[in-house]
């Protein structure tokens, strides 16, 4: 299927985005912002003065709104720069039954994952809104899965962009590219 496949390796507030063609050629790689400047990147795992439940809920709502605006702008800028439309995006998987309730997210074992999952949920929502398929990948296994699919081409496809595009070409870039291959 023609069209661009977007793989994302996210962090708190930003992500590595690698876009590849149907034949796994890297067409674009960039850092994208997932939140507006000045906003706390981890509202649940909040640093500083502890917040009560109500204050945390307000902060999470503000951060999520900022994430929607910033991520939307980043995805639009990326899509506009590409020679073909994006047909899918691949994101690191999260437990689909992860709670939405802020009070529950503030407790272990959820608290350490809640902020990261917020970014992935925002990315998934925005991708769906653009008509892109959303694929979830296992970060620990995706590169190995891509190697299995690519066989003898694996090294050239996954490591070649460092030579052809130059640095940076990090583990995040390889993982994002591998995710597009597994999704394809």
Structure characteristics:
single chain; 184 residues; alpha/beta; five-stranded mixed beta sheet; 5 strands
Q: How many beta-strand elements?
A: 5
Average pLDDT confidence is: 95
Beta-strand portion reads 15-25%
- Uncertain regions: pLDDT < 50 for 5+ in a row? none
Helical proportion, percent range: 40-55%
Structural class: alpha/beta
**Alpha plus pi helix count:** 6
Query: What is the N-to-C succession of helices and strands?
Result: EEEHEHHEHHH
Distance between the first and last residues' Cα: 8 Å
**Net shape:** elongated
Question: What about the largest sheet?
Answer: 5 strands, mixed
**Radius of gyration over C-alpha positions, nearest whole angstrom:** 17 Å
Give the neighbour order of strands across the main sheet.
Answer: 3-2-1-4-5
Q: Topology, pairings included?
A:
Blueprint: E1 4-10, E2 14-20, E3 26-33, H1 53-81, E4 86-92, H2 102-105, H3 114-129, E5 133-137, H4 142-150, H5 154-165, H6 171-183
Parallel strand pairs: 1-4, 4-5
Antiparallel strand pairs: 1-2, 2-3
